[in-house]
Design brief:
Elements (H helix, E strand, L loop, with lengths): L34 H6 L6 H11 L7 H17 L6 H28 L2
Helix pairs in contact: 2-3, 2-4, 3-4
Length: 117
């Protein structure tokens, strides 16, 4: 990064030039503005979306599948109320996985009940 007034190369994240003292230097980008950091860290993401995503991942175990549905719906509501939050894809993933792995055991139970008659 270079000073816009004198052209001096700046080292580090200075808010003022060390040569001419110019202070209108662009600040370093915020951590939450970096797309790579937003992918790796839960910056600005709905906590419900994070929970729904992880429950969706383990929903093939069948036990957390209904919880993935609940947290997916809570996340979608939270994101709708707070437009600055992200995580809609993770919430939908948790919701879909929860629905799939809740309906599969219900279908097997229903087939077993109907087949036993």
């Amino acid at each position: 990064m270079f000073c816009p007034k004198c052209g001096n190369q700046l080292a580090g994240e200075f808010l003022a030039c060390t040569v001419c003292g110019h202070r209108d230097l662009p600040a370093s980008p915020a951590l939450s503005d970096d797309p790579a950091m937003r992918m790796l860290m839960p910056i600005g993401r709905s906590i419900y979306a994070i929970i729904a995503g992880y429950l969706g991942l383990v929903s093939p175990i069948f036990l957390p599948a209904p919880l993935a549905i609940v947290f997916g719906l809570l996340a979608l509501r939270d994101i709708k109320k707070n437009p600055e939050l992200v995580g809609k894809g993770r919430a939908i993933f948790g919701l879909v996985m929860g629905l799939i792995f809740t309906l599969i055991p219900c279908a097997f139970i229903l087939i077993g009940l109907l087949g036993s008659k």
